[in-house]
Structure formats: C-alpha cells, structure tokens
Design goal:
Length: 270
C-alpha cells in the first residue's frame, strides 16, 4: 500500500545519537493532506541531517493507513529514538479534536497512541501550524524574540501559532476568527486568492483586514507569515499597514519537520 517516496536518497543515523541525555537528534514527521514527510533533525541547529523523504498521503487517510506510512519512514531511516509528528487538527493531550484534509475517523482518536503502538517509538503529536511556529521560534525568523509572537500560515486555510517568550500556547485556530461576517480563512487564505484569481494587491487588502483584527485582539510584538505564499512575501507584505513588525518565515517546507522534532526532543529533555 505504501507509495514510493519522492526523495529516494538513503537515510542514515551515522554520527548522531538519540540519547535522552545529549538530545542531539530527533525524527520529525510532517503529516499533510497530500504528503507525509520525514527526516532526522539535528536538534542543536535545526538542520536536517538526512534527506527529507516524502510519501503521498493515502487516498483513504485512515489511522491504520497513515500509521503504515509513519512506520515506513522510521524503517527507512533506521530510527528508534524520539519522534515528533505534526497533524492537521486540534490536538489535546495527544487526541485529535478535529480533522482537516484527513479522514474524519481521526476525530477523537489518540494519535500519540496510534503511532506509538504501530512503531514502538516514543511519540509526541502537535498541530501542524504550532510545529511550524516552534521551528521558527527556535531557529528561524523569531529566534530570540521576546514577548508575543504570532505566526500565520496562509495556504488552503489559515493556520496560527501563538508564543509568549518562546513558549507555545497551542491550538489557537485564529484562521477561524470572524472576518466581515465570514470565517476568516474563507476570505483571506492563499487558496482563495488562487481560486478567485485575485492579484496580490487585491488579496493583500483582505489579509490587511484579517491581520488588523488579530493585531487588535492580541497586540503582538511580531507577526510571522508562512505557507507557500511566503516565498513571494516581497510582493504582498510591503502592501500591509500594521503597527506590528512582519517577517516572512525562513524554514519554509522544512518547518513542520523541524518543529515536530524539537517538540519530541524538548519533551524528552523534560
């Protein structure tokens, strides 16, 4: 059932250790609606120490089928240490309370337990936007930034991650704030820009209205903007007029993997 990986370079753990005392490395997995990606991460630097391997998400993305992909990723890497995984859902104590772009049967499922049982590894699962934000706070555009940091990821929807002095406040789901009588992501997500063929100038007006609302509610010290559209940040971020500084995310496609690995390493460190 497992599809071939898009990156077929061999993974190796040579030169790294998953020791709970040194915590030099952890495995990060980024679970999305179209692909499941994984790699070993150097938790001291945030760099990927093995090639990123991507396997398409099964069309029937049930717990059993997704767990099979997770097992395959760890098997290819020969990894038995701590593992962190992102998941497109609200995660409370390891349990999925929602399901975005994966099978609805995940709702109410203990995701931590499913993956731990399937692999025998020590797992921690967190919301995908929270993981991306964690990577940016530890190693990216928000490193060493004090105060309130809000990361907003613009993609199919709008994901969010909220930090206070580097500590994550999980599952904020700020993409679902009401904006002009609508769910915010139904107006300002990057997918809406593409679907409605909006120019960056037109779309930026919607993003301005949304981020102004978030700014008024939280008075952040820094906004981070992520998602695929952040690669073109120079085309729309300068069009925004906010009191809060705005920085594009730096880790891009690796953010979820890095953030998941850091969550695993930091929990093991505790």
């Amino acid at each position: 059932m497992t599809a071939p990986a898009s990156d077929d370079q061999p993974a190796t753990t040579e030169g790294l250790t998953a020791s709970p005392t040194t915590l030099e490395a952890a495995f990060g997995i980024d679970i999305g609606g179209s692909g499941i990606k994984g790699a070993i991460v150097d938790t001291r630097t945030g760099e990927l120490k093995t090639p990123r391997v991507r396997i398409p998400t099964p069309q029937e993305s049930s717990p059993e089928n997704v767990a099979e992909i997770v097992v395959e990723l760890l098997h290819r890497a020969g990894w038995t240490g701590p593992v962190g995984a992102t998941f497109p859902a609200v995660i409370k104590n390891g349990v999925a309370r929602s399901a975005a772009n994966v099978d609805p049967s995940w709702i109410g499922t203990d995701v931590d337990a499913v993956f731990s049982k399937a692999t025998g590894a020590d797992f921690i699962v967190l919301n995908d936007a929270d993981a991306a934000g964690l990577a940016e706070v530890r190693f990216g555009a928000a490193k060493d930034v004090a105060g309130v940091v809000i990361m907003l990821t613009f993609g199919t929807g709008i994901g969010s991650a909220l930090f206070l002095d580097g500590d994550l406040v999980p599952n904020t789901e700020l993409g679902h704030l009401e904006l002009q009588g609508h769910d915010a992501e139904s107006r300002a997500a990057a997918s809406v820009k593409d679907k409605q063929k909006l120019t960056y100038k037109q779309w930026a007006k919607r993003v301005q209205a949304y981020m102004s609302h978030v700014e008024a509610l939280f008075s952040p010290d820094l906004f981070l903007v992520g998602g695929g559209v952040s690669k073109d940040a120079d085309r729309w971020v300068p069009l925004l007029d906010l009191k809060t500084p705005i920085r594009p995310a730096q880790l891009l496609n690796n953010a979820g993997i890095v953030g998941a690995a850091m969550a695993a390493a930091e929990r093991r460190g505790e």
